[in-house]
Amino acid sequence: MPRGRNRHLIEQRDLALLRRYHYWTEGQRLRFDDTLKILSEQEFFLSEERIMAIIRRASRVHRELGIRPVPKVRKPRITATQLAMLLEE
Fold first, then answer.
1. How many domains would you assign to the chain?
2. In Å, how far are 13, 19, 43, 55, 82 from 50, measured between CA atoms?
3. pLDDT tens digits, residue range 16-60?
4. With a threshold of 0.90, does the pTM exceed it?
5. Among 24, 57, 68, 88, which is disulfide-ready with 35 (CB 3.0 to 4.6 Å)?
């Protein structure tokens, strides 16, 4: 019997997490950050970062479900010179 984590159980957990994410965001119309907090603190007891990584991966694997995660938000990088110019105005 192999040691370690059972791949089948992990896949089932990830699929359940994806379905719960869809339930909270689409069914209950909850905001994205509130959904992550519920999934993290009340349902799956994983960090919000880990939950988001699982949702992104599971949504790619299970495309037939049609569940899309919120895209990553990229913050613009601003230099000290640009900041100084903005503050002058």
1. 1
2. 13, 16, 13, 9, 34
3. 999 999 999 989 999 988 999 999 999 999 999 999 999 989 888
4. no
5. 24
